[in-house]
Amino acid sequence: MGFYELTFPKMSPRFFIAFLTLVIGLLSSWFLFQTPESPKEAQTTKPVTKKVPEYIPSNPASNRKKNTAGSNRNPDFDPNAIPYERVIAFSSEEAYRNFLKKLGDSRVRNKGTIDALRAVRIAFDSPADFESLGLDPDDVQFNYTVSIPELREVPPQPGAVGFGTTALEYLGINRDNSEWGRGVKIAVIDTGIEPHLALGGNIKHINLVELAEGSSPNSHGTSVASLIAGQHPNMRGVAPQAELISVRVADESGISNSFLLAQGITAAADAGAQLINISMGSSSDSNLVRQAVDYAIEQGAVIFASSGNDGTAYSSYPAADPDVYSVGAIDANGTHLNFSNTDDNLAFTAPGLEVQAAYPGDNVTSFTGTSGAVAFPVGAVAAIMSESNQTISAQQAVQILQDHSNEAGLPGADNQFGIGIVDVGRAIDRNTSGIVDVAVASQNYLLPTSSSSASGLQVSIENRGTETVYQSTVDIQIGNDYFPYTLQKLSPNERTVVTIPSGLGQLRAEGQLEVSAKINLSEGQIDVKPANDQRKEIVTIPANDR
């Protein structure tokens, strides 16, 4: 390829300086307002101090950091932003109203407003049109893509066991729950809820998105709703009598955006939702969505969201918001599913593999993902509220569910299981005396690290009943060695961890090690769930640790 010589006409020095100034100005504007043409891998940014809105959220955690990755003055914009769109959120009502009036005389299009947040969604054809508005960069955000989570990259691991129709039984619901959820309003912010024989007629519809003519509704929202409040004997939800509010923010493809999500959250709060289920997410943190979360919390709502199905070490948004309860997925063996995003902000885990759910047209589907998992703690909180005759708030019910979740994984909260696995029956029966249920909750073999030489088997034992147990024994086996351990006393909801420093030599020599633990109650005490009294597992050491 040859080189091309550029020639310019002769001009006076004054004219040349003016011309050069104009060119530099145009190039600066272009770079400032350049918008990505197609989504690419999300880019994370460090948050800066949040601007406090005029309302004061009751939740202390709402005094958190503001993510300004969408600010027009930030060159490190998120490529997940929708091209040639912005969201403007004003700090005062006067500025908001004046801007709405100004829009009518511009070439910029108004695509929606949220009065509660003083926010406007705009679209433009050229950066110059947007620049002509003369907005304060602090008020400007990008509008990000939000979608229902799909299993694109990470499938369930080999050997994972699906739930089918057994999810409720796994959650400890072994009784008539047909009246659970009565009087509790639950918003499902999703693709909409379609009529289905598994769902009653007590559904309020708020449609913020109109479907394309001739298109079929996406089934996602209907499936999620059935897990929360299904009433059919073969598709029973956790809280069948809950009042559902269907908030459609996504189209037939399951695609939405952060503005619509924020609009849906505020609409749900204004409709009186006590619980909000969001089985959607984005790789980008929207400050507007955070403001909507604050607004809903101020109205008394509690928000749950799916952690996402990307198999990453961070949850999608809004699940990653510290004021939102993030939910991950497990299989029927109580094993963390590889696709379920992990995060220190994770609150709960629940069934998320091949769960039977409703599908439009009175059909049934096998539902997999964190989308379905999040429905179970939502339904559980509604059940706790209704069974307490509405004497406790949604937030108090969440605390009860946390206090009575089942230990799993590493002792205490961890990034795979959160606080624990949802156990609805245990939470409902918390005040019922006479329940004896002691479980070997988890086993973890510790390998030496660069920072610690400690090794051995770590066994977590949990009292999931309502009675204190005394003088129980635990038979622990590590390879060919046996270690008896005595539990002097274990109160209801109490957990203890036993660590046995043994087995490393055999593990390194053979590459694997069989470990087990079995609880033996003292005479006169009968465990109502003997199946969880013991665990037996094979520990495998990575080749580079041998």
How would you describe this structure to a colleague?
With 546 residues, the chain is α/β, with parallel strands linked by helices. It has three domains: 38-144, no CATH class; 163-428, Rossmann fold (3-Layer(aba) Sandwich); 438-545, Immunoglobulins (Immunoglobulin-like, Sandwich), CATH 2.60.40.10. Helix content is 21%, strand content 26%. It is built from eleven helices and 27 strands. It has helices at residues 13-33, 93-103, 127-131, 167-170, 220-229, 258-270, 287-298, 370-387, 394-403, 424-428, 504-510, and strands at 48-49, 65-66, 85-89, 109-114, 119-123, 140-141, 145-147, 185-190, 203-207, 231-232, 235-236, 243-248, 255-257, 275-278, 302-306, 325-330, 346-351, 355-359, 363-367, 420-421, 438-446, 456-463, 469-478, 481-490, 495-500, 512-520, 534-540. The strands form eight sheets. An eight-stranded parallel β-sheet has the order 9-12-8-14-15-16-17-20, sandwiched between helices. The chain has a four-stranded antiparallel β-sheet with strand order 4-5-3-6, sandwiched between helices. A four-stranded antiparallel β-sheet has the order 24-23-26-27. A hairpin with a 2-residue loop joins strand 23 (469-478) and strand 24 (481-490). Helix 6 runs parallel beside helix 7 (287-298) and helix 8 packs across helix 9. The relative contact order is 0.10. The model is unreliable at 1-76 (pLDDT under 50).
Structural class: alpha/beta
Rg of Cα set:
27 Å
Distance between the termini: 57 Å
Q: Quote the CATH topology of the largest domain.
A: Rossmann fold
